[in-house]
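pasting for ref. prot 1 ->
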Amino acid sequence: MWYIDSSAIIKLIKPEKESAALIKKLPNALITSRISRVEVARTITRFEPDLLDETYDILVDIQMVPVEDSIITIAENLPQYIALRALDSLHIASALAIKSLIKGVITYDIEMAKAAKTLGFTILSPGAK
């Protein structure tokens, strides 16, 4: 199982330059933070509203990590050298909470990838340069 963030989920819905490479290498089992539903749905609603039905079809197949107090505590207590915004911190905290269950993190967010790698995760970003 791999943790997938919203930057990668959006590429599964809205064709972008990395989409084909991602789809080709996409693992069968995916998990993400519950906040991805909001991030992805709002992004698609703003920029590609005709793809909203497809958005929910894709999201339903991805397991979700609930945003519980323990996740918030992990995000609040990330080391100072992990310089992420609030939602990205929640993604990293969610991945850390299930680290023993996942093979790594799928992301196209450069700062998220850097932070995840620093915290010992394997990163997957097919098609990225």
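and prot 2 ->
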Amino acid sequence: MRVKLNRKAQVSLEYMVVLGISLAVVVSVLLVVNNMINASSTKVSISSAYTAMEGVREASDFIYVTGHPSKIPKSIFIPKSVVEVNVSGRVVRFRVELASGIGSSYTDIYAVTKGTMRGRICSGPCHEGNYKLVFESIDPRLDLEDVNITRAS
């Protein structure tokens, strides 16, 4: 009777060890998958913001090259991760919030244009969505910036 009980205890112990190892493997795989999802989410956010920023740069360069009295409307999609857009001088800068486990971290994406610009894309914090912008050449006799960017109503 004693041998039979020892045998059952040994089987139980082996079963618990196998179950523990299995759980460790599953948790490891889940951690790796979670990291991969976060990394791809960050890449998509940065790529979307870069596409929007390039749209602003290309439209501004087009207006600068074609000269006064050029004016074009353009729709730009600002992704959710963009928290701030700054247009000053010849630089377009998008501040992107990155997914992170603790706190907030940011990265800046910027482009340099051919002409100087003025205008505002987001007033205050940016919100996700399509922004209809108007890019307009400024008369060079006024001695101001080359391109004015306004939001269309």
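Helices lie at 2-66.
Residues 46-151 form one domain.
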